[in-house]
Amino acid sequence: MQRLSSPLLRHVIRRGCCDAASKRQCLQYLRALRTLQLNSFNTVFLGETDIPESLITGEKIAEEASLRWPVWTLVHAGSSQGWVPWRYKLFLRGDLPTHHQNGIFQDLCASLTTSYGKCVIVTRDKRQPRLMGAKDGKEPETGTETGTLTPVPPAIYMSSIECCPEAARANGHELLVVPSSYNYLYPMDVAWSSLKWFIINNRKDFALKSLEKTHSYRCILFSDLIGKGIEKMTPNKWKVVINRVKRWENYYLDTLS
User: Fold this and answer.
1) DSSP 91-156
2) What digits encode the pLDDT tens for the residues 27-48?
3) Looking at the DSSP assignment, which residues form a beta bridge with residue 92?
4) Confidence (pTM)
């Protein structure tokens, strides 16, 4: 009997993560992160998630039909102190002009400078899963003269926005890419799961129904639903998740060194 897992619970682990190049990549990332943290950089995790309309309405539709439904993309960042004090961005997927894609990251960098000072911004690169120069068993070149930072491509692409290392450095920050094979080092997945479970369990409370003589309709307070869902990931929950990530960081530093 075929068993299907919920998309919220599905967790893909690439077994190729155990090869030498991937281990070297992870170790290099962790050493760079530790170096920046020792230099008083605050760690901020930047991420995004897709919110399909069917998740908001609760309607069950076929997978083929779901491809034609609108999908919103949410971009936000968090740290051990909770969500960063920056207004998250929510927009229709594929509906954001290129110049706005670049502007979102620059806006975040400016906000982080005001709130935290210098930060190391950690994100995923959806289009370049492996670091430059880390293939064919070759040692990648370091990104700085001191040899402490991992090599970062000229641009890091999330699904919706472009993150430019030069824009980060212009605001006093550094940008790192979390190794794609080591999911435990990236806490944003937990935050997004918390948001989506809130939507599933509370979407009815944010819906207004109207019954007319000839028709009826339902209005969903979408912005309020997202805002309350984000608030459910409290600073205390963030602290727990970040502490778990730190334990995994220490584990990989010990075992891979």
Assistant:
1) EETT-S-HHHHHHHHHHHHHHHHHHHSSEEEEE--SS--S-TT-STTPPPPPSSTTS-SPP--S-E
2) 999 999 999 999 999 999 999 9
3) 72
4) 0.80
